[in-house]
Design brief:
The protein is of the alpha/beta class. The chain has 15 helices and 10 strands.
Length: 368
Amino acid sequence: MKLISFVVFNIVETLLRFFPFPSKTGLLKIGNPGPDSPVFLTCNYHLTVQRVKRALRGIDAYLLLANSRGVNVWCAASGGHLTNHDVISALKTSGTEELVNQRKVILPQLAGTGVEAQVIQKKTGWKVIWGPVYAKDIPFFLKNRLKKTPKMREVRFPWTQRLEMAAAWAFPISLLGGLIAILVSPGILIPLVCLVWGLSLSIFITFPLYSSWLNSERKRLGFSLISSGIVLLALVAFSLISANFSWRFLFRWGLLSFIVIFILSIDLKGSTPLLKSGFLQDRRLKVILDEGKCKGAGFCEQICPKNCFEVDEIQHRAKMPGAERCIRCSACIVQCPFDALLFESPKGERIGPEIIRKFKLNLFRKRL
């Protein structure tokens, strides 16, 4: 029964992924935790809660749900919906301190864009340990004495996640398009829904084949035009095979295909965890490491979702051998205790940590 409900929640909330789904905040007991059991904290996005609980099966632990307004961890932390205040409030009002002997709380790594470990420890006495990016890695993370491998720190975009994003886009587009079709031309309802789902699945499943094109404005436009051209050729072939060729048919479905592809391509980069959003105001900035300030604390290495950093433990200095992979999430800048990291524009203008920590991103990836 639990498995069925888990599957149902996953399907429904994946289809409605762009909408907040809040769970009740507070403390959950997983298994039979005691004074020495680990304490985890995550957002109150219902789908995340369900997946974390499933990952913790067979483990005795405490799970704190902080108020992220029903938004997932990365979006909530980057957008100012999962903040220091929310984490501090969860720790202080849940009664967790009375249940455990230690003062260590494990937060999801992707919360590092908006939750400052230093502030949490200073105001609550709880040390923040950054857990793995994906909940499924939690059991090994615990067995490995709360240490992450590079793979556990890195965001990926496997076919399962690409399917989820395809469904998350296809459902609202097909719903809106279907409602319009019912009012204008009911006969195209089923073909239109099939077209939307087919295009969405095709674009996201084949993402690895064209992902390198998305880093160029010109190539992105080329991707949309080529995709529309392929669909148009498919429509021509279909109409010829069915012996029902007509220019009206080609114009109608060619135009509808182009509209769907245009919608899906508006911020295709931002629909993936691997590329900088096209709306991101900071996309032309680069992260600068001030080696004079760096003391090799290693927070940047632990928090970076693209493994851009390495820390030389002998010289106590960080390096950025993977700088070209940076997606400007700003987590390293937020967490560095020595303010050794900042953004720099192509013109040499600099944006310091105090700005990044204070101003969060809105829905269009602009800092407010």
